[in-house]
Amino acid sequence: VGSPPPATPPATISTFRGRIQQVTGRGDDPMWMSETGWSAPMADTLPGANPAMAGCTEFSSERTFAKFYEGFVDWDLSVGEVKGPDHVFYFTMRDSANFAVTEHFGLVKGCADTQCKLKNATTTTTTTTT
Fold first, then answer.
1. DSSP assignment of 44-67
2. What confidence tens digit (pLDDT) does each residue in 36-87 have?
3. DSSP 112
4. What is the number of other CB atoms lying within 10 angstroms of the CB of residue 105?
5. Phi, psi at residue 68, to the nearest 5°?
6. d(C-alpha 33, C-alpha 87), whole Å
7. Are the C-beta atoms of 53 and 59 separated by less than 8 Å?
């Protein structure tokens, strides 16, 4: 078992903890992680930022969105050998349009919607019967 890939949250948090320690001399100072989330449907900015990823329909599917959110809710904030974040904020409650760019990170589509986007999403679950 090696280190996680450099762009994963545990690796990023571990790197950030090391940088905090370089500045403050402590590796356990408070850390708040903000604006983590997943877009479904595809974020308007993805095709320009990463055309290959934009070509994968599963990447921005409701199923992947649901799987990400399930992992977020289940996360105990541990990241391995370093102290995890003290607080993590999910971004955002509702989809939005900022500067004519639509973002689909919300749990609901808009202010008038009352149903969570995850209600109809299909995730893989394991059931054990005895």
1. TTHHHH-HHHHT-GGGGSHHHHHH
2. 889 999 999 999 999 999 999 999 999 999 999 888 888 889 888 889 999 9
3. T
4. 19
5. -60, -50
6. 6
7. yes
